[in-house]
Design goal:
227 residues, elongated
């Protein structure tokens, strides 16, 4: 079976199935009462949640292009139901990204804004390691999809804003000590040094271990803070 894409969903076979399911739904709606209709709605939502979780689990396990068959097998629902629930594949992708943010929310912890620079620096790097290693598979998928999905691109932009705000708060004292005209540049440098893109370069591009990549990131951030 081909990958679950908008092209695949737009096939004639799917269109026929969709029309048939819509007719079936209309007949069922006319024949049942409100409570039964509410039950169908709940089951549909439950199936959608299971499809989203299955999609996300597959991506996190290393499958960068889950098929409808794989999602169905993982979620325990039928392939036809997967197609019916994902008329807009982008919405499934976006829902998966959102679910992944919920799953990893506990990794985004408050970091100290005062105390020795070395302590704050090491705590930031440790947190970035936890976050970036935790989100890596899904983040890579999101990076590939961002160019064709406005909602995913917006989600990534929001994530970047959260990370940039964090470094601005952690190193607020050092930034304030710099001349006003250099603060924005200094923040940009720290932001880049502590970014997901930099971590991905160290881990995937350079092939460094987590420990080695963390050491390099610490050196880069320290240089940006003190520069």
């Amino acid at each position: 079976m081909p990958p679950l894409t908008s092209r695949a969903i737009g096939s004639d076979a799917y269109a026929d199935a969709e029309i048939g399911s819509e007719i079936d739904a209309e007949i069922e709606s006319a024949a049942v009462g409100p409570s039964q209709a509410d039950g169908r709605t709940r089951r549909r939502l439950n199936s959608y949640e299971r499809a989203v979780d299955a999609f996300l689990d597959l991506v996190e396990s290393g499958n960068d292009a889950p098929t409808a068959q794989q999602i169905a097998e993982r979620s325990g629902i039928s392939v036809r139901t997967v197609f019916r629930l994902t008329e807009d594949i982008e919405s499934l992708h976006a829902a998966g990204i959102l679910r992944q943010m919920e799953r990893t929310a506990h990794l985004y912890v408050a970091l100290p804004k005062t105390g020795p620079l070395t302590t704050r620096l090491r705590m930031l790097v440790k947190n970035r390691v936890d976050v970036f290693e935790g989100i890596a598979p899904v983040r890579r998928f999101a990076d590939r999809m961002a160019a064709s999905s406005a909602s995913i691109a917006e989600g990534l932009e929001l994530h970047h804003l959260v990370l940039r705000t964090q470094v601005a708060e952690v190193f607020e004292r050092e930034l304030k000590e710099k001349p006003r005209h250099r603060r924005a540049t200094a923040l940009d440098a720290i932001d880049v040094a502590a970014s997901w893109e930099n971590w991905e370069l160290l881990r995937q591009g350079k092939g460094l271990s987590v420990t080695s990549a963390a050491r390099v990131m610490e050196v880069l951030i320290a240089g940006a803070v003190r520069g």
